[in-house]
From TrEMBL:
The gene is modB. This is Molybdenum transport system permease. It holds the Pfam family BPD_transp_1. The chain crosses the membrane at residues 56-77, 89-110, 130-151, 180-200, 235-254. InterPro entries: MetI-like, MetI-like_sf, ModB_ABC, NifC_ABC_porter.
Length: 262
C-alpha cells in the first residue's frame, strides 16, 4: 500500500467507532433472535395479523403514491411555473417533518372535525381516522416524497430528444407521456416505488397518531413491535427481524442506483 494512502489513525479510530455504533445493535438483534421458534412465532395470530396488515397497507400506499406522485414529479420536472421551488420544497417537507407532526396535521385536515374530514363525514359518512384507510393515508403522506424525488430525477436525466421526435411525428402529449416518457423513466419509478413501499412498511409516528393502534385494523408491524416490547419481547424481536430483512432487501435491490462502490 502506498504510504500516502494509509488513513491516519485520528480518522480511522472514529470511523471504526461509528461503524460499530451502527452495526452492533443490528448484530444484537440477530444474536438475541429466537431462531428455533422463529417460524412458529411468525405464524402466531397477532404477529401474522400485523404482518398481513403491514404488507397490505404498504402496497396500497405505494400504489397511491405512484398514482399521484408520478404526475406530480412530471409537473415539477417538465412544467416551468412561478413558485416551482416552493412547491418542490413543500413536497419534500414530509422527509424532515417528524412523523407524529404529520399525523397531527392529517387529523386537523381529515379528522371528523377537520377541514375536509367534517365534510366527508357529513356528506358521505366517511370517517378516515382510526381505520385501515387512515393507515394507508398516513403511510402515503410520509412515503410519497421518496417517489417524487426519484421520478423527478429520472425525468431530468432523460434525453428530451425522444419526446421532441415523437412530437414532430404528430403524437399527442398524452401519447408522448404514455409511450415515450414512462418507458424512459421506468427504472426511476421502480426505484421510487420500492423506497416508497419500504418507508410505508416501517411507518410508525403518523400511523399511531392518525390511525391509532387497533389489532387487526390499524396495528401494523412497527406498532406491534412497540406494543410487544412491554408484553412479549420475543415477538418484538421477530417483527423487528422482518423489518430488518425488508430494509436489507431494499438496499440490495437498489445498490446500483443508490449505493456506489469503488
Amino acid at each position: 500500500m502506498n504510504p500516502s494512502a494509509r488513513p491516519p489513525w485520528i480518522l480511522l479510530l472514529p470511523a471504526l467507532a461509528g461503524l460499530a455504533f451502527l452495526v452492533l445493535p443490528l448484530a444484537g438483534l440477530l444474536i438475541r433472535a429466537p431462531w428455533p421458534t422463529l417460524g412458529t412465532r411468525l405464524g402466531e395470530g397477532p404477529v401474522l395479523e400485523a404482518l398481513r396488515l403491514s404488507l397490505l397497507t404498504a402496497t396500497l400506499a405505494t400504489g397511491l403514491c405512484v398514482l399521484l406522485g408520478v404526475p406530480l414529479a412530471w409537473v415539477l420536472a417538465r412544467v416551468p411555473f412561478p413558485g416551482v421551488r416552493l412547491v418542490r420544497a413543500l413536497v419534500t417537507v414530509p422527509l424532515v417533518l417528524p412523523p407524529v407532526v404529520g399525523g397531527v396535521a392529517l387529523l386537523l385536515v381529515l379528522g371528523r372535525r377537520g377541514l375536509a374530514g367534517r365534510w366527508l363525514d357529513e356528506a358521505f359518512g366517511i370517517t378516515l381516522p382510526f381505520t385501515t384507510a387512515g393507515v394507508v393515508l398516513a403511510e402515503t403522506f410520509v412515503a410519497m416524497p421518496f417517489l417524487v424525488i426519484s421520478v423527478e430525477g429520472a425525468l431530468r436525466a432523460a434525453d428530451p430528444r425522444y419526446e421532441e421526435a415523437a412530437a414532430t411525428l404528430g403524437a399527442s402529449r398524452w401519447t408522448i407521456f404514455r409511450r415515450v416518457t414512462l418507458p424512459l423513466v421506468a427504472p426511476g419509478i421502480a426505484a421510487g416505488a420500492v423506497l416508497c413501499w419500504a418507508r410505508a412498511l416501517g411507518e410508525f409516528g403518523a400511523t399511531i397518531t392518525f390511525a391509532g393502534n387497533f389489532p387487526g385494523r390499524t396495528q401494523t408491524m412497527p406498532l406491534a413491535v412497540y406494543l410487544a416490547l412491554e408484553t412479549d419481547p420475543q415477538a418484538a424481536i421477530v417483527l423487528s427481524l422482518v423489518l430488518l430483512a425488508v430494509s436489507v432487501l431494499v438496499l440490495a435491490a437498489l445498490r446500483d442506483r443508490w449505493v456506489s462502490a469503488p
